[in-house]
Write a structure and sequence with these properties.
Helix content: over 70%
Number of strands: 0
Radius of gyration: 22 Å
Order of helices and strands: HHHHHH
Oligomer: single chain
Distance between the termini: 20 Å
Shape: elongated
Number of helices: 6
Largest sheet: none
Number of domains: 1
């Protein structure tokens, strides 16, 4: 039926789902750490003599540690997501070679890290893979768009946190970083959940039966 075999992507989807879910658990734990740091710094600023400085420093150290966990689990989730994306992209080209993939395969990685284009190239890639994976070639619609908007906003929040942390010599900067992290967590959580939904939806679409090409005899 197809010139090349379509390789199953369900196992990769499961691994990517677990990795993303693990990152979200770490992000959720980090919210409580951020809240503790935010409160302790606030108490210290309000009454420097009434708060043990060691407690503030311990909370700041735990905040730094959870930050490393967040970065590590995000990279791990991104790695498994990329492996899954390469698989479903290859399958999409086999299942629907007539559906145009607007970006070459190297962009499956570079689209996420190259400045400016990273705001829309990854969405184009996912849209094209989704369309080619659907037997009726329907576009993804609002689900993928909602995922992408929440992801971009969550990345903006992460960048804002980083700006507060880079060269932060004052406690108010650290407190602001903790506050921003708490405020943007709902977007991080929603974008992660939607990413899981989107990747599993594409995986399921690729397993659906599709019309057998007509054979013509002369």
């Amino acid at each position: 039926m197809y010139p090349q075999p379509v390789r199953p992507a369900r196992g990769l989807a499961v691994v990517a789902t677990i990795a993303i879910a693990f990152n979200l658990l770490v992000e959720a734990a980090a919210v409580f750490v951020s809240l503790d740091l935010y409160q302790k710094i606030g108490e210290f600023v309000a009454s420097p003599l009434g708060v043990d400085v060691a407690e503030v420093m311990d909370s700041a150290s735990l905040y730094d540690f959870t930050g490393l966990l967040q970065a590590g689990t995000l990279l791990l989730a991104g790695l498994f997501y990329w492996i899954w994306l390469f698989r479903v992209r290859a399958n999409a080209e086999i299942l629907a070679p007539h559906v145009r993939q607007r970006l070459g395969k190297p962009w499956l990685i570079f689209a996420w890290i190259v400045p400016i284009v990273s705001f829309w190239f990854p969405k184009q890639i996912v849209d094209d893979v989704w369309t080619a994976s659907d037997p009726q070639h329907r576009k993804p619609g609002g689900l993928a768009m909602t995922w992408w908007v929440t992801w971009v906003l969550a990345v903006f929040g992460s960048n804002l946190v980083a700006r507060f942390l880079i060269g932060a010599a004052e406690l108010p900067d650290l407190r602001n970083a903790a506050l921003v992290e708490m405020l943007f967590f709902p977007l991080t959580l929603l974008s992660g959940i939607l990413a899981i939904v989107v990747l599993n939806r594409i995986t399921s679409l690729q397993t659906l039966p599709r019309p057998v090409p007509q054979q013509y005899s002369y």
